[in-house]
Amino acid sequence: MASPVSAAPQHPTPAPAWLSEPDDANALADGVWPADAARDGDGALVLGGVTATELRERYGTPLYVLDEAEVRARARRTLDAFRAAAALHGVQARVYYAGKAFLSTEVVRWVTEEGLAVDVASGGEMAVALAAGADPSRLGFHGNNKSVAELERAVAAGVGSIVIDSLVELERLAAIVARTGATQPVLLRVNSGVHAETHDFLATAHEDQKFGFSLEDAPAAVARIRELPGLSFVGLHCHIGSQIFGTAGFRESAARVVELHAQLLAGGEIPVLNLGGGFGIAYTSADDPTPIEELAVGIAGAVAQECEARGIRMPNLAFEPGRTIVGPAGVTLYEVGTTKPVRLDGDATRLYVSVDGGMSDNARPALYGADYSARIASRRSDAAAALVRVVGKHCESGDIVVDAEYLPGDVAPGDLLAVPATGAYCFSLANNYNFLPRPAVVAVRAGASRVIVRGETIDDLLARDAGVTAPTEGNA
Ligand SMILES: Cc1ncc(COP(=O)(O)O)c(C=O)c1O
């Protein structure tokens, strides 16, 4: 007779190679959590001076929590790092916050107050930045398929720079400025053939993807921009990928893009070189991202070296970090609903811990196989650590929140679970799969909390359904 499946796994499945069993499955790994995250005397997680249990009582779960001091500190540190690195070579650096990582009016205010400009990637993102009172002249506008209406709005608003991604867009914009009499500063996005993803980079002659112009096609596009009186060419733009560790990919890309920049100087001054974002963060204790100061010095140094080798003046630099500003400032709180040991081949079992959100509030594990970590947030536990998989409540077996993590083995329904490093690309990519309302975003700071984006209700979702005939129930 088969033995009954017990509550605790008897033959746990092996952990992935990168994950080691912690000495303390309550510990908050440095760099993965906001700097001020701690546990109080009762063992509850405290974020920005507010306990996770208090946040659950007040706002419910799932809940996105954003640590305002952490966002501000990261914005300041990043700006200081790039300014200092540029100053070593006698040039200036501008840092745009890449709003796609997390955009709300409040976050735009935080980062602009800390001195950052903002990069937006759609008319909707532009509307959020403008609604926050951002200075339009400090906005950069991205996208591979900006509509005529979006471009018209950007020109009318006085957006500081538009990053041109195709010839079709170039002519669209040319027609708009010819009609309105405006002069629009533009950059040209190029594809350096260098693609960096996670801890590695790949360099090819051409990259088979949708963004930007190849290095060969760019000169003709720049020549066309330069012959149009309503467009002012301010520089090249290149973004090589995301979650990048180390400077090797940036150095290779800088060498290629500076070569093009040097050629284009024959046609006139080019004040700026924008090298995009992509700076990596720690999602788990196994990640060891390069400090931003080191990246900044390495990248600026590479550009300086390439310019010197060609005998040209170094341009001012621009960067577009998103994840590194907001990622580690965000923590998602969930409530555990069920736990289940699942029997695997060879008598092993895996403990599945189901929470009340999932791929609708964090699509990254399903989209990219992204790894996260987790901790029980409502209490400390001395139970032996058990390897678990945290899953959501969606009808999809790929609905994984944390693929592999050690939690105290007595993790149980009703526990509050916190997943750190969810500040970037979780709220932005949130969806309503299975008609789950998107969670609220609460900012914490100095012991106080407040909603900065309200959570959706089921009535919000039903309000879009043109066929609803019966009154809805005011269901939150
Ligand atoms: C053009 C551009 N700039 C900046 C970013 C921000 O990247 P990250 O959040 O990894 O810094 C992205 C991300 O996709 C991007 O496409």
From TrEMBL:
Q: Which GO terms describe its molecular function?
A: diaminopimelate decarboxylase activity; pyridoxal phosphate binding
**Entry binding sites for substrate:** R323, R364, Y368, E396, Y425
Please list the GO biological process terms of this entry: lysine biosynthetic process via diaminopimelate
EC numbers = 4.1.1.20
Q: One Pfam match, by short name?
A: Orn_Arg_deC_N
Residues that bear N6-(pyridoxal phosphate)lysine: K100
Reaction catalysed by this chain? meso-2,6-diaminopimelate + H(+) = L-lysine + CO2
Q: Does the keyword Magnesium apply?
A: no
Q: Which residues form the Orn/DAP/Arg decarboxylase 2 N-terminal domain?
A: 82-326
Q: Which UniProt keywords apply?
A: Amino-acid biosynthesis, Decarboxylase, Lyase, Lysine biosynthesis, Pyridoxal phosphate
Q: Which positions in this protein are listed as binding pyridoxal 5'-phosphate? A: G278, E320, P321, G322, R323, Y425
HAMAP family attached to this UniProt entry: LysA
Q: What does this protein do?
A: Specifically catalyzes the decarboxylation of meso-diaminopimelate (meso-DAP) to L-lysine.
Supply the name of the protein: Diaminopimelate decarboxylase
The species this protein belongs to is: Microbacterium thalassium
- Originating gene: lysA
